[in-house]
Amino acid sequence: AYEYPTDTGQVIRVKITVDRQKREATVDFTGTSPVMKNNFNAPEPVARAAVLYAFRVMVEDMIPMNAGCLRPINIVIPDGSMLKPAYPAAVVAGNVETSQHVTNALFGAMGAMANAQGTMNNLTFGNKKYQYYETICSGSPAGRMNSGRGFAGTSGVHTHMTNSRLTDPEVLELRFPVVLEDFHIREGSGGKGKWNAGDGTRRTIRFLEKMGCAILSSHRSRPPQGLDGGGDGESGSTKVRR
Q: Taking the CB of residue 174, how many other CB atoms lie within 10 A of it?
């Protein structure tokens, strides 16, 4: 079983077993923390989507993405766990943060990849006239192919459940009263090993008029975990300069 501790104190536990004769797998989240009074609980479909994504990544052949991909996979999610909450549990971070945690746990359980940043770094800002939302990239993890060959990560890319891109700096500054003062690779922040993880980023935005700003993120106190003796990545941080 693989354990994935989170900043909130909750733990995602997952065990993956494979029946080679039946060509079936069981993904069991028994032991995962119960629902807690925070917004990092995730509706069950979020965990199922993460399972589909992780197993699809492991298939090297070109196959259609449809319900048949999940047919040979038995997913066990205990009632009342943070991955199967009941109303009125708060779940706003489930699809953007906990989905990243589950994905990291799945790849860790399969021994395929070390942890990615484990967060989307959801940044929102705005006022009555302007509104903006972005997810901030970090580094992709190191891991190994099905053949056993290792690979290094890539710096400054979005990964897993936030596989997207940032707004171009010129467009950002043209459409919003902000200045992107700094955006660079955070050298040495990725986990070190025989195959190094990609490094994260540092991003500094200056507001030219009064704005409300919020960030929903993770791995500020617990670092992303390495794999097979590889080093952990560095934790992230968020700072406000007035």
A: 9
pLDDT of 127 above 90 = yes
Tokens 């986990």 belong to which residue? 191
pLDDT of residue 67: 86
222, containing H or E segment: none
| Same domain flag for 139 and 214 | yes
The count of structural domains within the chain is 2
Crossing angle (nearest 10°) for helices 44-58 and 99-109: 40
Q: Which helix (H) or strand (E) holds 58?
A: helix 44-58
The full DSSP string for 134-183 is EE--B-PPPEE-TTS-EE---SSB--GGG---PPPHHHHHHHSSEEEEEE
The whole-model pTM stands at: 0.94
How do residues 132-159 score in pLDDT, each as one tens digit? 999 999 999 999 998 989 999 999 999 9
Give the residue numbers spanning the domain of 149.
Answer: 114-242
The verdict on 53 and 129 lying in the same domain is no
Indicate the DSSP class of residue 67.
Answer: G
- Both 6 and 58 in a single domain? yes
